[in-house]
Amino acid sequence: FALNKRPADQVADSSLFGKRPKMDHANGPSKVLHCRNLPPRCDEQEIIALCAPFGLVRNVLVLMERRQAFVEMQDENAAMALMAHFSQAMPNIRNHAVFFGYSSRERVTAPPPEPLNNILLVTINNLLYPVTVDVLHQVFSKFGNVLRIVTFNKSGKFQALIEYPDERSAAAAKLTIDGQNIYAGCCTLKIDFSTLKTLQVKFNNDTKSRDYTNPTLPSSGDASKATAAPALSMGMPFGAGSTSLLSNPGIGYMGGMGLAPQGNMQAASMSMQAPNQFAPLMGGMNPGLNQLTGGPSIMGMQGMSGMSSMPSAMMQSPMQMPGSTSNLPSVLGGGGGGGPVLIVSNLDADSITPDIVFTLFGVYGDVMRVKVLYNKKDNALVQMANAQQAEIARTHLNGCPLFGKRINVNPSKYTEVSLPKAGMNENASHLTKDFSTSTLHRFKQPGSKNYAHICPPGVVLHISNLPPSVSVDELTGLLAQFGAVQNLKYLGTDRKMALVQFPDVEQSVTALVSLHNYRLAESNIRVSFSKSQL
Predict the structure, then answer these.
(1) Residue 80 in contact with residue 28, Cβ under 8 Å?
(2) Secondary structure (3-state) at 260
(3) H/E/C letters for each residue in 433-497?
(4) Model confidence over 451-487: pLDDT tens digits?
(5) DSSP class of 109
(6) Considering only CA atoms, which of 414, 402, 413 is closest in space to residue 457?
(7) How much is the pTM?
């Protein structure tokens, strides 16, 4: 008999299926190492944390456009120790395999230092929730007195200019929170020094600009129409424990700044001093700031202006905020913990289809592709639009009841789900589906209001786009096919929306995956989980 080799992504994701680490020894021992296959948006701190256990890291040069880096260790012995260790264990950053080799370079020369300024140019990437002037002020005022803030959109990105009275405060903010997330898993800060010398502010409002030195300025005409974003909790810096969208966007862990795991930051502190251009500004601060153990970590900022009032509870552990339900995302992991692909197991093999998986996971993000594994149909790979949406889905759906089982959701080692090739087993082709062009995506627009309605699976469903011609009895009869309807309440006088309550979560999940986009009379109804109680 012949053995049919299955494609890699039809094998259940498991650490048992590892690859032999790939090391390049062609150039012979050298204290400078060449690192390849870096994950997207990899930064120096991630590389330092990986290399620091083997010796002092003197310099790092990241070539992000090539996804490569050069790392200069303290000596050849440190570099050889790293190569020896990773010849037996695959090195990875954010579950992404990377490869080391000796470089022919004798040393790594860092790029020229960025000129300092008291005005910061802040770009906010992964903008999933609104960020207002007040939110920016509460984040950046931790490092000094903020004089003025101006926000604007450029080239499709949301940006802000933050003016401090001195370069010291601006440098402290950049050193500490560049690359951090305002909200868990999203709204990532990219901070540069601006070339402007001062900011001109004409209006004080919540959405565009504010001059904190001149509170008498008029507000612009559109300020009253602005939708207020969730405010950061002043009692717990960076929103930990807040009940606003910062801590309740439907992300299982608490919102706020992503803090680095203690072990990683301790490793980083062994290896590299703060950039030279900050050195003159750090005199008199907490000595820990002169190394990365006090740089990227918020806990290291006690000596800075505005940080002395930080609650002592924040200093106890960088891994968990008081009142949170799980660890905060790591600064070294970019707030994610994995890529855009999830592995889902313990599915009901007789009932599951790609469309059902798409509908359920689509409540928490835009599903691009789904593959039910051909030889293990109780497993499926789900590719979300990005890593943040994958983490939101994983957090809410891990353990969710579906067709009599509780599904397990974990990050996958794959970066995408491949489509079947022409001529492959026709019996398996229906198990993989591409949803990238689906009109049913709920989060196509950045900052979509649907993010505000994300919540864990519950017994209450929200149904919208109901046709007015359908009676209460007809709607109840339709819902009763999937569970015992305990309560049904229409919202508004036009009867286009309703809340329905089932006795348990499994019945509400079954109703959702069965009825979302169901054609009822002249309309396709929309179904989602609701935070409301009946």
Answers:
(1) no
(2) coil
(3) EECCCCCCCCCCCCCCHHHHHCCCCCCEEEEECCCCCCCHHHHHHHHCCCCCCCEEEEECCCCCE
(4) 778 888 999 999 999 998 888 999 999 999 999 999 9
(5) P
(6) 402
(7) 0.45
DSSP secondary structure of 265-320: HHHHHTT-BPPGGGGGG-TTS-GGGGBTTTTT-GGGGTTSTT-TTS-THHHH-TT-
CB neighbours (10 Å) of residue 154? 8
CA distance 304 to 175: 12
d(CA 433, CA 437): 11
Length of the chain: 534
3-state secondary structure of 261: coil
What's the Rg (C-alpha) of the chain? 26
Residues contacting 306, CB < 8 A, separation 6+: 141, 142, 143, 144, 145
DSSP assignment, residue 94?
A: T
How far apart CA 279 and CA 274 sit, in angstroms, is 7
The one-letter amino acid code at 137 reads H
> From the CB of residue 130, how many other CB atoms can be counted at a distance below 10 Å?
20
- The set of long-range contacts for 529-532, using a CB threshold of 8 Å and a minimum separation of 24, is 529/363, 529/455, 529/456, 529/457, 529/458, 529/460, 529/461, 529/462, 530/453, 530/455, 530/458, 530/460, 530/461, 530/462, 530/499, 531/453, 531/455, 531/458, 532/460, 532/462, 532/499
Contacts of 469 (CB under 8 A, 6+ apart): 521, 522
Q: What is the tens place of the pLDDT at every residue in 334-392?
A: 334 468 999 999 999 999 999 999 999 999 999 999 999 988 989 999 999 888 888 88
Residues 141 and 86: their CA atoms lie apart, in Å, by 43
What letter represents residue 59's amino acid?
A: N
Going 193 to 181 to 414 to 43, the CA torsion angle's sign is: positive
What the block records as the tokens of 262 is 């203690």
Distance of alpha carbon 384 from alpha carbon 38, whole angstroms: 21
Cβ–Cβ under 8 Å, residues 494 and 484: no
Task: Please count the helices (runs of H) and the strands (runs of E) in the chain.
Answer: 11, 26
